[in-house]
Amino acid sequence: MSTAAIDYRFNREQPGYSGPVMPERRDLHFLPPGDRICDWHKAGPNVTQFMNALSLFFPAGERMFIDAVRSYRDDIPDPDLKKAATAFIGQEAMHSREHSEYNQLLDAAGLPGTELADGVARYTAYIQENSVRVTPLLMTIALEHYTALMGDALLRYPEQIAGSQEDYARMWRWHALEEIEHKAVAWDVYEKCVGRGPKAYAMRSAVMLSTTVTFWPHVILFYRRLAAADPGCRAAGWRGHVKLANFMLGYPGYLRRLLPEYLAYFKYSFHPWQQNNAHLLNELDELVDDAEAAYAAHGARPA
Predict the structure, then answer these.
(1) Start-to-end C-alpha separation, the chain
(2) Which is nearest to 103 in space by CA: 115, 93, 118, 113?
(3) pLDDT digit string (tens) for 293-303?
């Protein structure tokens, strides 16, 4: 088990800085318009519903991540990492809150948002109640790798979401930025509290594989359920599904582009900050200002 201190200081002006980064809890609200829940993405209703399907996993998933890291917080020997873990918990709580409210817009539009999200909650609760303590943490570092890679793709290729309805786009950019900001926290908790070496490597690799073969089929299932209930997707027919497949896997193929970085997870010496993308966090201050201004312009959220 590693006991060396972790330096979470972050200088955005330092050329080539590659993390780690001290996360910061930001209490932001986004108020995306309910009448755009089925067509907010510039690429059309099918890509919109794919993104909406991803959102359905976040409330329960983020709560599991919080509980997984919190269960080890008292065991963390490094004060910087303990502080980062507390900030990670705060960020994930905000993500869960905002995506819960986002997902309620699906119900209002006649789509099975709550039904599908409740299924995720039952699954995560089962995992937490019927597994050893390390299992949720292993699932957390696996899924945090996915969210960090998807966040990186969204920010590295801004054309992926540019031109979409601004409140939804702003919310997804915020989530992407914070996923990058805290991408190594759960990983470092695992290495500090569980350990490194062949056994730790074997466990994290096995859980990444099992998570991959369960997560993506459910994403596809949730997308199909949402698309079947969405008149815009029904009108697009099979062409809409082909357009989505091309967008994600063909050209530009935003998910396909993640494959090399996904596979890097299986390197014995892997660490999330080997992907040096700290420079993307320079967008955070501007986004926070934009989000606060938009929230003020929309008016306070009803009590």
Answers:
(1) 47
(2) 113
(3) 999 987 655 44
